Amino acid sequence: MELIDQHTKKIMEGCKERALAAGLRFEEESLEYIVTNRDLLELTPKVMIPTLYDYWVHDVEVLKEKGRYELYPSNPYETVINTRPAISYYNDNNPDWMNVMIFYHVLGHIDFFQNNLYFRHTWDYDFTGRALSDKRLIAALRSEKGRWVDYIIEFTRGIDNLVGYHHELSQLDRPPIINGSKRLNYFFDVFLQDVRKVRVSEYIKEIERYNSCIRNEGRRGMKTFFAEVAKTHPEFDTLFKKSLKEKKNTKPDLIQYLSENSDFLNKEKNSWMKSVMEVVRNTSVFFQPQIRTKIMNEGWASYWHEKLFLQDDRIRGHEVDFARTHAGVTSLPRVGLNPYALGMRVFYFIEDLGNKGKYATRFRKLLDADQRERFDTHAAKGQEFIFKVRASLCDFTFISTFVDQDFVNHNKLFVAGKRLNRDRMVWEFYVKSRKAEDYRQMLLNGLYHPPHITIDGKKRDGNVLYLVHHFEGKPLVKDFVANTLLGIEFLWGGTVKLETSEVIATQGAVSQQEEPGPADIRWERVVYTMKDRKLAREVIDG
Fold first, then answer.
1. Would you call 258 exposed, middle or buried from its count of C-beta atoms within 10 A (0-12, 13-18, 19+)?
2. Is a pLDDT exceeding 80 seen at residue 517?
3. DSSP letters of 415-467?
4. Hey, what long-range contacts does 332-339 have (CB within 8 A, 24 or more apart)?
5. Radius of gyration of the chain from Cα atoms?
6. Which pLDDT score, from 0 to 100, does residue 178 have?
7. What string of DSSP letters covers 218-266?
8. Is residue 461 packed enough to be buried (19+ CB in 10 Å), middle (13-18) or exposed (0-12)?
9. Does residue 72 carry a pLDDT above 60?
10. Fewer Cβ in 10 A, N or C end of the chain?
């Protein structure tokens, strides 16, 4: 693995200039490496982070990737990771015209990483540096603790999809404390609203009084304001000081809860385990936004590599080569999902909405198909609109908002069904639905959606940890329950219970000539108990 040569780097810098001029925003420093297929096979299990900690599963994945490559050899066009500076990898046999296309695609990804709010927690540090520090920590612990380090990694990775990713974002997106004053924050957010429970009119008067004090007296305004508060509410200072001593009302995820509350982990001889758990948790939190924005991210990069490439005078004579390569990446399959193709088309659709003023109440009220097709206010705000979408949404909100009937009709999309042709004894696909709600639901069903599991402190009996799976229509995978609870039992140092929902039976015969469809499914509430490494199951509500 080595840095690209100066000739190729000059091409990349030219792409950066054009991308910035088009409105993309990113840090201009970046690192580009030439890699072999062997390098890529070894980097893939580590999610392309070369400094990620070593783990035995990575070696297994390398062997699997090598076997797959021998059967289906292919060269990936590029891979880019969200670091500071951004790092990207390229094959060593790409011609210059292809590098122009690929560089634009990479710059689209970098712009997305550095501006989408779901990546907010990754903006202020370089993950490769942190990963290297974590790798050294785990290597040092391995030399001292041996195989126990890998047990802790494995047990923690079994629950690393339950990390409080959205809680991390909520902490970052909270507005800063006004003028740095905890006292002021407590007065407006807690005292007036929760203690005094004042009316809205009185609350607004207090805000106006504060603004008046600051406007008229500058730095002394804060003291003047709270001098009046002390006269009106003599109990305020006592309550405020008491609030500073109270423990913050946080909602720790399962890994954090175990680290903070497990008597086993808090023993001095076991405290090193918490460091390993924190490494696994931080790694999971870092990668959470990438799996939640895959359609948007790939669509955004594909949108820009097409738009900027076709405007670049350096690729004249290679338009046909580009068309062939581009079609292979962004063609829309009739069955299945291509995130590059879907995401790119949604962004073009959004741009058209902005340019024609269709994202407005007046347009949404139109029911006539011909009027909707001809509607155009010449708003010319398409580019502005797509940049706002890029900054604010994830795949779920992106699909829920913009995959409507107009989009489905325009791209001739449908939900495919599958049935058995008994004459030929083969499965055949057919158009099951062209409704936007059905197509949208199909997309949403395929998105990443980890289970929602919380700790129920009220049901905790002694040293028993009680977990509750908040059922959302999808059962847990039974094959993973035993091993996962075994790992949690070890980390907790006591009995673990898990309450969840499982299928009792389905009612109504399913036709043998058609794939199983929605059936009358009956559910029962059960509790799994892991005690002394033995799993028991109990039905609590049928």
1. buried
2. no
3. EEEEEEETTTTEEEEEEEE--HHHHHHHHHHTS----EEEE-GGG--TT-EEE
4. 332/411, 332/413, 334/414, 334/416, 335/416, 335/429, 337/443, 337/446, 339/294, 339/295, 339/298, 339/299
5. 28
6. 46
7. GGGHHHHHHHHHHHH-TTHHHHHHHHHHSPP-----HHHHHHHH-TTTT
8. exposed
9. no
10. C
- Can you give the pLDDT at residue 56? 77
Helix (H, G, I), strand (E, B) or coil at 57: helix
Those residues whose C-beta lies under 8 Å from the C-beta of residue 192, and which sit 6 or more positions away, are 198, 202, 203, 206
Distant-in-sequence, close-in-space partners of 480: CB < 8 Å, separation ≥ 6: 158
Residue of 16, 4, 1 whose CA lies nearest to 100: 16
- What is residue 394's predicted lDDT score, i.e. its pLDDT? 95
Q: What is the mean pLDDT of the chain?
A: 87
- The string of pLDDT tens digits covering residues 175-186 is 544 444 788 888
Residue 70: pLDDT band (50, 70, 90) is: low
pLDDT of residue 109: 95
For residues 509 and 503, is the Cβ–Cβ distance under 8 A?
A: no
Element (H, E) at 519: none
Of 414, 426, 494, the C-alpha closest to 460 is: 494
Which of the two residues, 217 and 274, has the higher pLDDT score?
274
**Token pair belonging to 27:** 């840090």
| Structural contact between residues 191 and 198, judged by C-beta atoms closer than 8 angstroms | no
How far apart CA 215 and CA 210 sit, in angstroms, is: 9
Closest CA to 287 of 444, 454, 165: 165
What pLDDT does 141 receive?
95
Q: Identify the three-state secondary structure at position 523.
A: strand
Q: What is the DSSP letter of 516?
A: -
DSSP structure string for 362-410: HHHT---HHHHHH-------HHHHHHHHHHH--HHHHHHHH--HHHHHH
Average pLDDT over residues 361-378: 87
pLDDT in tens, 111-157: 999 999 999 999 988 899 899 999 999 999 999 999 999 999 999 99
Distance of CA 301 to the CA centre of its chain: 17
24 CB contacts (<8 Å, ≥6 apart)? 107, 108, 111, 304
Token pair listed for 46: 């580590």
Angle at which helices 395-402 and 294-310 pack, to 10 degrees?
A: 70
Percentages helix, strand, coil for the chain (3-state, rounded to 5) are 60, 15, 30
Burial of 61 (0-12, 13-18, 19+ CB in 10 A): middle
Q: In what order do the strands lie in the sheet with 534-541?
A: 452-455, 465-470, 496-507, 520-531, 534-541
Q: How many CB atoms lie within 10 A of CB 427?
A: 11
| Main-chain phi, psi angles of 532, to 5 degrees | 55, 40
Which two tokens mark 275?
């460091």
Name which of 447, 383, 370, 292 is nearest 24 in CA terms.
383
pTM of the model: 0.81
